[in-house]
């Protein structure tokens, strides 16, 4: 037995030495703990076999001596002695190698004393006559007292005290004690537990902890791959240089690093004031400040019963907060019955974060509920509350409780208008797949009828996406008897079937081809102006397309709406494009006829159009560059002249070496256009069905650039770079008879040119101290002199001035003007200014004036303001006002209040036809807002 105990002591000794506890006094406390643990184990055996034990020890600053004396029932004395020399580290020195010392004893009750004897090694022991004890001297360095005869009660008390002391002061197996913090810890293969006090039970196997309890679930991280060294020099393998297939690496035991320290990551952390952990069933009971925290959620409760293996449990007076802080649940009892699925009794839910102990601004309360995080909340006896005041009741309610897309009803839209009457729209969202969805709109107007709608979306990646919307209305107001409706609104449509279909798509076809689709088909010219607001209105649809594709719809007042589909492929500087183009003509009947009553031609369609362009440099041949643009178009129209047109336009250009300080270039182009004319409807073509036009044009340019940087002493701008580029261009295109050609677009009429274009461009760049620059502005002046117009004594064109100034990164001014040098003065003013702040305020003001003989006089002012008035309040205002007509084309004003979990917007929209009032109420993370229109 002592041999076995020595091995245990020696193991502890090796551990102490390995941790560096070798200085004076440093090993004493640790070694004493080890001795007490060994004695405790042996004491249990002694009590079971009738042994008596006495422990005597002496501790000095540099040494510990310990003696053990045992008396067996066969009246043999066993003696064991060992010591510690602290200056030399922990040591084990048996004095007599555990040999037996035999004593002669007197008969029971006799007063005779012990006589002097020797042990088997010759060491002498002797008795002291007349004393009640035996003194044993060993190497004259230690004395130990062994009681010869002790009262039974005293011995029993001594054993009880000794046993109590050892049980209270010696840590249990599997438990480590932190002497600095006083925290006890227990570790299993999967869980770590620490607390102020831990008691471990063996049957049943469980752990009871008290005070500052932290239970952590760990997951072992896979070891690093072999050869993944840090800081190793990268060497390119031969198979990469030779472009060969990489060889397969054979995994051997030697290639796997086995000395890596295991790395764990924390998955779940449970805290409480008191906890009972059943190791066998893997369950816990906890109370007092209970919290269960994971990556995706946090649960707080007063009491909890948790199944750690199934990750389910019951929590009393509990709160659950989602990881994104977008879901907050509170209830008297919350049961976690599945993955992110909860059963609530007498609780409430809100889909946003609540700060501190503040009350929820709104919530959905229920007596019984099933909540699926990232799914739906199904509430029984549901009450919608503002603060704690219920304002709406439903016996059963389903609402979204998610961030991800999920099928279900969206929030309704309510509206009221003078002619449409009360309106109601309850959209239904269908998540078809992870990349596609469909929304069904159930719009109803009391005075118009039912107007259903569909919205289909898909997105595969940023280059593959599509969006399509459609609405249909059989309009009860589209009737000649509704005279008040037509008189007050100025609308002219008379069709009852009213619809609008719009769609855009970007799609890559294979690895080289890309496609673009734009559709805009509407029933009448009044539809887009009449249904401008709302979820499916023009304004919202236009913003949705612009945000998704970067392409907006055409203006809502355009009577000819373009629909196109194009496919393109590029090879470096060469591209090929094929497209189809159709026009949705929504002009009124009056616009389709001229003043003489003749029917105007219908819009032209491209069925199809093919365009092939490219650039080819010849660097070894005088730096020549060949550019070409070749296209074919089949023009079709319902009524009028159409046909086929082939247009080929190659150009050669090269620099002209005049001076190293001058930039000069010359260009020569040859253009041939061929027509095959066709008649559609009742149109007649009086010329030949085939026509051809050949043009030759010459261009030359001469200019230079001067650059200088000026040092400045400002903090935000340390320098200013000014680039000046004066230039002169010459364009020549001889006059060619084009009267016999059909007219489809601007390509069919190319005017004669013989003129000089000249001007000076100034570009400014601001420099800062950190070697960054930004655009500061420009100033451009251009004019041309035409030799053709010299015959009319007006060879000079208007002087065009283009000025842009960006004094600050968030402030800019842009001014453009045309000045007629022949006594008409300024014929164009266009001033646009904008100011942005860091907090998101935007101020924009635009003034536009145009007075030209060939264009109607236009004068208009536009303004836009978006600003934060004070805490949580924002205001929006925009206006488009025609000064010439003294009429406001459109005006919108809105006041927005943005709280943490909700927002409300009160707005008004004015058009010459009608005025609408809007109330938009939004709840955080609950999809589309609740909208009211009047």
Q: How far do the termini sit from each other?
A: 97 Å
Low-confidence stretches: 1-64, 66-151, 168-181, 227-234
Structure annotation, total helices: 7
The largest β sheet comes out as:
27 strands, mixed, barrel
Helix/sheet category: mainly beta
Helix content: under 10%
Radius of gyration in whole Å, from Cα? 47 Å
Any idea what the shape is? globular
Mean pLDDT, to the nearest integer, reads 77
Strand percentage lies at over 45%
Per DSSP E runs of 2 or more residues, the count of β-strands stands at: 52
Notable characteristics:
27-stranded mixed barrel, 934 residues, 14-stranded antiparallel beta sheet, 9% helix, mainly beta, disordered N terminus, globular, 52 strands
């Amino acid at each position: 037995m002592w041999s076995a105990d020595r091995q245990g002591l020696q193991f502890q000794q090796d551990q102490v030495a390995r941790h560096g506890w070798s200085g004076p006094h440093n090993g004493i406390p640790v070694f004493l703990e080890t001795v007490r643990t060994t004695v405790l184990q042996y004491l249990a055996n002694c009590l079971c076999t009738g042994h008596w034990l006495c422990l005597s020890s002496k501790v000095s600053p540099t040494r510990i001596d310990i003696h053990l004396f045992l008396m067996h029932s066969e009246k043999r004395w066993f003696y064991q002695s060992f010591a510690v020399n602290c200056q030399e580290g922990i040591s084990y020195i048996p004095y007599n190698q555990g040999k037996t010392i035999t004593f002669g004893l007197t008969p029971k009750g006799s007063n005779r004393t012990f006589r002097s004897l020797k042990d088997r090694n010759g060491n002498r022991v002797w008795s002291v006559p007349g004393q009640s004890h035996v003194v044993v001297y060993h190497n004259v360095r230690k004395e130990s007292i062994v009681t010869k005869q002790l009262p039974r009660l005293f011995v029993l008390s001594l054993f009880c005290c000794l046993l109590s002391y050892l049980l209270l002061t010696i840590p249990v197996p599997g438990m480590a004690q932190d002497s600095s913090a006083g925290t006890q810890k227990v570790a299993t293969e999967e869980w770590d537990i620490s607390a102020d006090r831990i008691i471990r039970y063996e049957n049943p196997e469980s752990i009871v902890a008290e005070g500052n309890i932290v239970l952590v679930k760990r997951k072992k991280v896979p070891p690093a791959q072999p050869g993944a060294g840090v800081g190793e020099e990268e060497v390119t393998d031969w198979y990469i240089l030779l472009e060969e297939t990489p060889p397969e690496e054979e995994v051997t035991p030697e290639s796997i690093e086995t000395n890596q320290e295991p790395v764990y990551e924390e998955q779940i952390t449970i805290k409480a004031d008191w906890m009972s952990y059943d190791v066998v069933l893997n369950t816990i009971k906890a109370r007092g400040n209970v919290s269960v925290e994971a990556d995706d959620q946090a649960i707080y409760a007063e009491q909890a019963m948790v199944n750690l293996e199934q990750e389910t449990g019951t929590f009393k007076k509990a709160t659950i907060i989602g990881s994104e802080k977008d879901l907050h649940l509170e209830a008297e009892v919350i049961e976690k019955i599945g993955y992110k699925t909860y059963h609530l009794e007498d609780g409430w839910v809100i889909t946003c974060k609540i700060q501190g102990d503040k009350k929820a601004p709104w919530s959905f309360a229920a007596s019984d509920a099933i909540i699926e995080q990232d799914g739906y909340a199904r509430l029984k006896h549901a009450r919608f509350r503002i603060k704690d005041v219920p304002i709406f009741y439903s016996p059963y309610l389903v609402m979204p409780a998610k961030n991800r897309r999920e099928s279900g009803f969206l929030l309704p839209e309510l509206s009221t208008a003078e002619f449409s009457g009360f309106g109601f729209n309850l959209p239904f969202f269908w998540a078809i797949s992870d990349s596609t969805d469909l929304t069904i709109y159930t719009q109803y107007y009391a005075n118009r009828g039912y107007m259903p709608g569909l919205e289909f979306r898909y997105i595969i990646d940023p280059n593959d996406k599509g969006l399509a919307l459609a609405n249909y209305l059989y309009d009860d107001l589209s009737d000649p008897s509704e005279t008040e409706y037509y008189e007050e609104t100025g609308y002219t449509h008379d069709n009852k079937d009213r619809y609008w279909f719009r769609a855009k798509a970007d799609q890559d076809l294979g690895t080289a081809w890309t496609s673009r689709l734009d559709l805009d088909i509407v029933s009448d010219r009044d539809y887009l102006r009449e249904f401008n607001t709302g979820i499916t209105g023009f304004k919202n649809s236009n913003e949705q397309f612009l945000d998704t594709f970067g392409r907006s719809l055409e203006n809502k007042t355009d009577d000819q709406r373009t629909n196109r589909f194009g496919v393109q492929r590029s090879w470096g500087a060469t591209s090929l494009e094929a497209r189809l183009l159709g026009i949705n003509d929504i002009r009124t009947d009056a616009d389709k006829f001229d003043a003489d009553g003749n029917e105007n031609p219908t819009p032209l369609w491209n069925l199809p159009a093919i365009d092939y362009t490219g650039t080819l440099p010849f660097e070894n041949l005088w730096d020549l560059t060949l550019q070409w643009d070749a296209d074919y178009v089949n023009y079709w129209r319902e009524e009028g002249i159409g046909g086929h047109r082939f247009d080929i336009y190659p150009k050669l250009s090269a620099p002209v070496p005049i001076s190293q300080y001058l930039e000069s270039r010359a260009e020569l182009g040859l253009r041939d256009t061929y027509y095959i004319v066709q008649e559609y409807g009742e149109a007649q073509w009086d010329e030949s069905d085939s026509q051809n036009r050949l043009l030759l044009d010459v261009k030359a340019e001469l200019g230079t650039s001067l650059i200088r940087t000026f040092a400045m002493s400002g903090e935000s701008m340390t320098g200013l770079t000014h680039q000046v580029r004066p230039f002169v261009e010459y364009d020549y295109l001889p006059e060619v008879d084009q009267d016999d050609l059909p007219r489809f677009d601007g390509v069919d009429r190319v005017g004669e040119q013989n003129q000089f274009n000249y001007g000076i461009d100034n570009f400014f760049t601001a420099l800062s101290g950190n070697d960054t620059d930004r655009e500061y502005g420009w100033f451009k002046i251009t004019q041309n002199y035409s030799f053709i117009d010299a015959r009319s004594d007006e060879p000079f064109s208007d002087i065009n001035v283009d000025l842009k100034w960006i004094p600050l990164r968030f402030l800019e001014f842009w001014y453009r003007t045309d000045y007629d040098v022949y006594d008409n003065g300024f014929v164009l003013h266009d001033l646009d200014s904008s100011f942005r702040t860091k907090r998101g305020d935007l101020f924009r003001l635009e003034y536009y004036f145009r007075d030209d003989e060939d264009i109607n006089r236009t004068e208009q002012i536009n303004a836009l303001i978006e600003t934060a008035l004070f805490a949580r309040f924002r205001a929006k205002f925009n206006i488009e006002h025609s000064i010439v007509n003294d009429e406001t084309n459109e005006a919108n004003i809105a006041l927005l209040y943005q709280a943490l979990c909700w927002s409300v917007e009160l707005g008004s929209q004015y058009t010459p036809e009608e005025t609408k009032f809007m109330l938009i109420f939004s709840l955080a993370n609950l999809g589309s807002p609740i909208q009211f229109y009047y």
